Amino acid sequence: MKLIYVIFKFLLFPGTFVRGVWEHITCKILHLPVESEGYLRPDEACGHVEHALATTPWSAWLMATGPGFMMFNAGMAFLYAGVLNIFYLGVTPYDSLPLFIFYVIMIYLGVSFLCSLFPLTEDILNYFGLAFHGKKGPSMILKILSLPLALITRAGAFCERNCINFILAAAFIAIHILFVL
Amino acid sequence: MDSEMNNNVPQTGEETAENEAFGEISAAEQEITEPAETEETAFEEIAGDTESPVESAEEAEEETEESENGKEDVICPNCGREFAPYGHDYCRKCEKKLVRVKVPLVSYIAGAAAILVSLFAFIVMVLNVLPALQVFEGLIYESGSLVYPALDSYKGTDEVISTVQEHIGTGFFSSFVAKGSKLDEKVFKNTVKFYNPLMAHQYEEYIFTSPGAAAFKEKSKAVIENRRIYDTYQNMYVKIMNAYNAVAENENAGPEDGRKAIETIEKQRGKEGIDSVLVDLFEFDVAGMSNMGEEAEKKYLEMALEDQKTDDIDWRFLFINQYCDMLIRQGEDEKALTMLKDIVEEDKSALDPYYLLAKVYKSRGDTDNLKDIVYEYCANNVTSEGKQSDSAYELLLYLFRVTGEYEDMEETASSAQALYELIPEYNRQLALAYLSQGKYDEAFEQAMKADEKAYYRQSYYGDTSVMNEKLFATVYVTAFLCDKYGEKNTENADQIPDVLESFKGRSFSGDKVERIINGEADIKDILNEGGCDLI
Q: Model ipTM?
């Protein structure tokens, strides 16, 4: 599984790299020690930076969801700029080769960014630990408000670690090719 | 578990000098130990799976020693020499060093580039959302077998793209808002479904309008397949037409002429490029034109149905309604019902099969099913503006005519004529709805409006079909009844004598007008039969 994970991460290197950048910048903002600054590494932390765990619920939340937020926005913009034009408006190489290539790249970037959406499992578990089991966790309202996204992030981190996100991305593209195009 | 965790939380008074010097560990920071232990099991899972800092920390944890205050310090996983103070992952030196690790310049550039390009992609996405939604609407209709509304939606994409381009001007971004050849292909495929291969072939030039259409068409499987069908049809047309025309152009063609023509046509069956179903349909036409009788016509349609089973192309749209109508006329309602239900299951936008189904239910007096089928059609045929399609109004009016719900008929016709301003038929039917309720003056006014609209359509659009006998019959009947029973106080009432004068001596097909004028039949009787043509 680790090998497949690393292969896909390298194949989708733009997202992998940028994910690492956002994580690194978040660590800098939160003054968290960063042990390794390499983002493209042949291990299961590929696309992430090795860093010390955050010590407050807020910083843990930011560490777990902040980079993902950036990746999500950029990824959706990339993906749908390509998908709407190729699959819905039916742009083909015959219409304009440069535009077609541009939209294909957009889809690739979108998939690449969205496949690097989630943090490492320990980052989100750290948030759960600090927020739900710590003595000075956030207020009940904040806990409730953050819970859905935290659960999604937890599930997403699990999917990403087990390469399920790559299967979902492939299914998304396949469905569009089969049923929309 | 809680008490266990609390035991690990250092008391303020017990803090070591090292901890104080290292930096004040806030109460919140101290609590980090609690979740860490609470989530021990989960963290073990992580540590087992990744080579993360946590893993390193846990490995280092094995090499721990009791600090002065009784809590465990951990060997720094970075340097492996110093102890990391309680609540910290790294030793003091390493932590300072690691916090200062800079984000490489190339990473900042990559991050900034990602933001800029994604902003650009976002603008492109936003500009294409509306046209894509139009296509999405078409896909939804298509998945529900609504071929016509789907085609309508796909065609509407051009208009949406033009509107977007009007707003953004002809600048840089306008080249990113354009439809492609695949969308043209979708329109083409649906045209083939809705009309027939011949018409689709005829429209091929007009449908493909995107920049790369000319090159794309040569590769498009749908176009190639349709051209093949067209050629097949053309070949057959050339070979069979003479025999067909011999009957079609002979007004006095009898069964014997028909049999000769069919014999000639039959010789073409089985030849390459000749579709058996289409041979059956030509023979059916010839049988009809040469008065060979309904049974002979039915035989050819049944042959077409049989041949259809082994044909790659679904030709049923060419003859199935005719066949079902024939079955209904011959009293084989049940058979027709089964076939019609199959058809409407596949295409919920075709009016004819729904109309025939309604006809069957009406003949059986099954008002519940009649209403169900009409309302089903109406629910599935709503325009993109959320209004009923014109064909849905047509079926709805049929329902109210046969059930005698004239107030509903009036309301429906009134909505339809307001919505479809250029269709005189709704004003005509509104006139009949008024007439059936004894509102003679209103009826005459609506008949005159229908006449006015029809004249307008004929003059400005060259549409001569609207100036037809059923319209004239309606004008005449309403004028006659208004003159006889109306109060004649409406806008056009003074024209009644002229209208009646203009129809003097004129006869209409059928006897409906005559029966009404002679008082032998009420307008309601005519409408209850389902028809409203008055001829």
A: 0.90
| Cβ pair A89:B180 closer than 8 A | yes
- Whether the CB of A42 is below 8 Å from some CB of chain B: the reply is no
Q: What pLDDT digit, counting tens, does each position of B205-252 carry?
A: 778 888 788 888 888 888 888 787 777 666 666 667 788 888 888 888
Size of the A and B interface in Cβ pairs below 8 Å = 217
The residue in chain B having the minimum alpha-carbon distance to the alpha carbon of residue A180 is: B139
Whether B47 and B122 share a structural domain: no
| Percentage of chain B lying above the pLDDT 70 cut | 81
Q: B437-473 burial by CB neighbour count: b if 16+ within 10 A, else e? A: bebbbbbbbbbbbbbebbeebeeeeeeeebeeebbbb
Q: Say if residues B294 and B302 touch (Cβ distance below 8 Å).
A: no
Assess if residue B378 is contained within a domain. no
Residues of B in contact with A128 (CB under 8 A): 35, 39
* In-domain check, residue B524: yes
The two three-digit tokens of residue A11, written as one number: 């194949």
Which of the residues B50, B127, B130 would you substitute to probe the A interface, choosing the one with the greatest number of A C-beta atoms within 10 Å? B50
Least trusted range by pLDDT, from A70-74, B11-15, B89-93 = B11-15
pLDDT grade, residue B99 (50/70/90)? confident
> Residue A95: closest CA among chain B residues belongs to which residue?
B212
What is the structure's pLDDT at A54?
A: 87
B87: region left, alpha or beta (phi > 0 left; psi from -120 to 50 alpha) = left
Q: What distances in angstroms separate CA B275 from CA B76, B202, B260, B288, B321, one per listed residue?
A: 83, 20, 20, 20, 20
Q: What pLDDT score does B481 carry?
A: 92
Q: For B382, which DSSP code?
A: B
Q: In chain A, positions 69-98, which contact chain B (CB-CB < 8 Å)?
A: 70, 73-75, 77-78, 80-82, 84-86, 88-96
Number of domains into which chain B is organized:
3
Would you state the structure tokens that stand for residue B77, as one six-digit string?
A: 């996983």
Query: Least CB-CB distance to A95: which of B29, B110, B211?
Result: B211
Q: For the packed helices B367-380 and B351-364, what is the interaxial angle rounded to 10 degrees?
A: 160
In terms of domains, do B93 and B109 share one? no
Rounded Cα distance, B194 and B352, in Å: 13
**Residues B125 and B69 occupy one common structural domain:** no
Domain around B10: 2-99
Chain A residue nearest residue B93, CA to CA? A33
B88 and A136 within 8 Å at the Cβ level: the answer is no
Q: How confident is the model at residue A22 (pLDDT cuts 50, 70, 90)?
A: very high
Are residues B137 and B208 both part of a single domain? yes
Same domain, residue pair B26 and B124: no
Domain boundary among B185, B219, B253: B219
Lowest mean pLDDT among B23-37, B254-268, B297-311, B503-517: B23-37
What are the residue boundaries of the structural domains of chain A, listed by start? Answer: 54-180
For B497-532, what is each residue's pLDDT tens digit? Answer: 999 999 888 888 778 888 888 888 888 887 777 677
Predicted confidence at residue B245, as pLDDT, reads 85
